Amino acid sequence: MEPEKVLMKGNDAIAEAALRVGCTAYFGYPITPQNELIAYMAKQMLARGRIFIQAESETAAINMVYGASCAGARAMTSSSSPGISLKQEGISYAAGADVPCVIVNVVRGGPGLGSIAPAQSDYFQSTRGGGHGDYRCIVLAPKSVQECADLTSLAFDLADQYRMPVILLADGMIGQMMEGVVLPPERPLENLPKRDWAAGNMTRRTGSDKAAIHITSIHLVPEELEAKTRARFERYGKIRAAETRFEDAGPADADLTLVAYGTSARVCQGAKKLAEKEGIKLGLFRPITLWPFPYGALAKIADRGKPLLSVEMSLGQLVEDVKLSVLESSAKSAAVYLLGHSGGVIPTEEEVLAEAKRILGR
Fold first, then answer.
1. Are residues 175 and 261 located together in one domain of the fold?
2. Are 306 and 140 in contact (CB under 8 A)?
3. Nearest to 142 by CA among 187, 97, 107
4. How many CB atoms lie within 10 A of CB 333?
5. Of the residues 57, 172, 256, 353, which has the maximum number of CB atoms within 10 A of its CB?
6. Which residues touch 340 (CB under 8 Å, ≥6 apart)?
7. 36 plus 152 within the same structural domain
8. pTM (two decimals)
């Protein structure tokens, strides 16, 4: 018997998946287009006897996440672009103290207050750190409501496994659209990963009744801070080797390969089908982990020497990682093009096909 599908918005699927995989503390502040998520958590977290707080600000919310996670909770927050900007200091603190947490960004147009329409212009912010200092966050990018649920579940597991912040980067279209979804099974809270390092477990671990603070991001001796950061980057290297995810929709003999994620990848799927009707072979490469980015896999495609077209709802952010992938290829000669929109404008299938034909001289 196949698992039951339910019709849900992407925002609601993220929230329900978080509940099912053991989110025990949620802190947030309303902002469009992720308001359904915080509303869902407000109702369901309290109904399950878990912690929900609508904080007085986004800055307060991320620091509550930091504190709750330090105490052993599976903690989460969500927001949209301007709100995520306000959370960057707290995310840096969590990364610097090796504290696991999940941050959901349902991206809207920017910069500034921008618009409430879907965008992908927070790519640099998410994949390059966003806050101060040397650190990374794992970044997962769903393209469907099903992946909203699946990658939320994965986000919590990766955060615990590697003790670091994980960002679920979904544009506003993904958050607002409705599709059928098979939700993850309910996990008993007693079966969640044990957090022996958490503040509540310190007395048992150290055998001391005295208060002790071991979870911190401050190291005033420069050499000590460098050593901690280098050790963290060694862990990042293991993540690159083990956790890189992507979808290569082929074909291997494509005339041109489209590179896109989220809503843009869905548009490219449609453009690919339109191209087939005209005898044009378009490939489609979709990074699922935006960090770690699948440079090696895309480099193998670039080795074929055919052009690559980055399709994104920004004016050139994903394309920089596409270019870096070409530099890792053996020939280093594949041409890279950009089809970008900003402010909440979504590319169309016809527009993508027309740009591919222009590049190919068709």
1. no
2. no
3. 107
4. 10
5. 172
6. 310, 311, 312, 313, 314, 315, 316, 319
7. yes
8. 0.96
